[in-house]
Structures are given as C-alpha cells and as structure tokens.
Design brief:
α4 runs antiparallel to α5. The C terminus is likely disordered. The protein has one domain: Zincin-like (2-Layer Sandwich), CATH 3.30.2010. With about 150 residues, the chain is mainly alpha-helical. It is globular, with a radius of gyration of 16 Å. The chain starts with 16 loop residues before the first helix and ends in a 15-residue tail after the last helix.
C-alpha cells in the first residue's frame, strides 16, 4: 500500500497577499475553500463579509482573476454593505467584451449585470491589484485587529 501525502493547505500567490491584508484590515474574511454555491469558483457574501475562492481555481490557472473578481465585489459593498458600482471604466478588446456580455446575459440577473460587468472587466487588467487595494482603502473602514489569526483556511 502506498501512503499518500496530504496536500498542503492552499495558499494565495504572494502577489495577491496585499489584497488579502487590505481586505482583512477592513473586516472581510477570505476563505480558500469551495464556495457554498455548487459549481462556483468564487463567491462574495456581503452579509457575512466573506469571500470564498475555490482552490481548484488556482489549479485551473484562473485563481488570480477569480480572487480579484470577488475582491472587487467586496469593494463595491462598501461603505453600506449594499453592492454599488465603483464607476470604473476599462477599454476591452471587442472579443472580450462580447464574451463578458454573453456570460452576463446567461448567468446573471439583470439587476446585477452592471456590478458583474465591472468585476469581469477589471479582474484581468494589469493594474487590477492596485485598483482593488485603492478602492478598498478609499471606500471601506478599517476595523479593529482580530485575534483569530489567518482566516484563509476553511
């Protein structure tokens, strides 16, 4: 019988850790675990201020985009807890714009399309990390430090 070595707990790439720090400083929880919605790679729940990122998203090579997409929703939720667009405008390749429009039409309620369009448009942009950190710092209040330690586990 061959013993299997358990996989190490999932970790975010170093480039994304400043976003996690900024989120946690503002009272959000980041969970590297499958979201509580079947088939989703990521999920932001405003009521609990929790972002779920499925570890498989990183295995598929889409982890950065999924994480930033959900972090954009976190920024959209500040300061009131109700998601509102940030007002970002990004020029996209027409093929990318068409793909985003298709996803929004088939998978999202029309009331959420503007929020989702903004998140999809910025998630893959080269300056997305800086944009998300700046938006979180501008829109979301700092919270008292927690004693719970690292919240990136399940």
């Amino acid at each position: 019988m061959i013993a299997t070595i358990p996989a190490p707990p999932p970790q975010l790439p170093a480039a994304l850790r400043p976003v996690v720090t900024t989120l946690e400083q503002r009272g959000f929880q980041v969970r590297l675990a499958p979201p509580p919605v079947r088939g989703a790679y990521g999920l932001f729940q405003a009521k609990t201020r929790t972002l779920w990122i499925a570890p498989v998203a990183f295995d598929l090579g889409i982890g950065r985009q999924v994480f930033l997409h959900e972090a954009i929703h976190a920024a959209q939720s500040c300061p009131t807890g109700v998601l509102r667009p940030l007002g970002w405008s990004v020029q996209l390749n027409p093929v990318v714009e068409q793909e985003i429009s298709g996803i929004l039409t088939t998978r999202y309620h029309h009331g959420k399309r503007e929020l989702e369009r903004e998140a999809f448009s910025v998630q893959g942009h080269p300056d997305a990390i800086a944009r998300v950190i700046a938006a979180l710092k501008q829109r979301c209040r700092l919270t008292a430090p927690s004693r719970g330690g690292n919240r990136t586990g399940p």
